[in-house]
Amino acid sequence: EVADDQPVQNGLNLRSPICCIMGHVDAGKTKLLDCIRGTRVQEGEAGGITQQIGATYFPAENIRERTKELKANAKLNVPGLLVIDTPGHKSFTNLRSRGSSLCDIAVLVVDIMHGLEPQTIESLNFLKKGNTNFVIALNKVDRLYGWKTCRNAPIGKAIGQQSKDVMMEFNTRLTQIITQFKEQGLNTELYYKNKEMGDTYNIVPTSAISGEGIPDLLLLLVQWAPKTMIKRLTCSEKLQCTVLEVKVVEGHGTTIDVVLVNGMLHEGDRIVVCGMQGPVVTSIRALLTPHPMRELRVKGTYLHHKEIKVVQGIKIAAQGLQHAIAGTSLYVVGPNDDIEYIKESAMDDVNSVISRIDKS
Ligand code: GDP
């Protein structure tokens, strides 16, 4: 079975930003991902959300639809948003593709009832170190005593429906949390009050249970974030591809799951990845993605592609991958490339990955 559906590129030629979700255990990372992913998946392919290898893809149309109430009909300059599926995996901000973090933007989830916790601060330090942009989801607003549910509503609308007491508790907690961020050296502000976007980080109150604030969060990720990183998101021909995982799959042997950030991959491409016992040079036997419809996804069956060129999660089957190392870059050997040089570049990654593993 062969698929060749490639989304049309936008005028500015920006690629989809890659997003990961971080924060303290129990802050609601998994639930938040479920919430932004789940709403439309039930309605089949209309929403266009596709689950990929290690990631979920949200097309711009889906996000536009879900943010309608924000009257933000402004055009979205990115084709969509790719959210990495394993929340809280701190290696994702650490995973590098040619020197820069795989994630373009992160959502830092903070429980409004708990404020900053040890792993919030740990995540924060990762983000600072990697110079990764992020938005703060101040989650579990529905737990404020007396909160009136406004399912999937923009946060401004939801807040407008709350009683004085709820607002008082909300403001007290918000002020405390802004102070806690300040103690970490960061200025933060409710996003709709934030006039200094860029220097002051945005806070979006959310509920991953009833969906308040989720439209705002999505819109920030696809509309505001790209404005701050036009250069980073401009599509280039140069291959940028990061190995997420090395896995044995029945019928395919050892495979690697990768995120293609930029450039193109073809069946048959000669590739080099970093391995435990030196560089692995091999050829792509199969470029695989899951079937678009969940129901059709029988375990172990994938769509085969002749080539893939947009940001997405892909499974690659090839010989000799059993020693490949997750978190390193994948290289393609072109007809005029010096293979020895590429092998060296591939192995350059290993030292940095190993030193990061040691530290954590
Ligand atoms: P993670 O460890 O950060 O991935 O946290 P989970 O997503 O597993 O959530 C931890 C617990 O908090 C679960 O029992 C969730 O149901 C609950 N939870 C998450 N988000 C919310 C929220 O917005 N409101 C409420 N009331 N509970 C939440």
Automatic annotation (TrEMBL):
The keyword Nucleotide-binding applies. Residues 14-230 form the Tr-type G domain. Keywords: GTP-binding, Initiation factor, Nucleotide-binding, Oxidoreductase, Protein biosynthesis. One of its GO terms (molecular function) is oxidoreductase activity. Belongs to the TRAFAC class translation factor GTPase superfamily. Classic translation factor GTPase family. IF-2 subfamily. This is Eukaryotic translation initiation factor 5B. It comes from Salvia divinorum (Maria pastora). The lineage of its organism: Eukaryota, Viridiplantae, Streptophyta, Embryophyta, Tracheophyta.
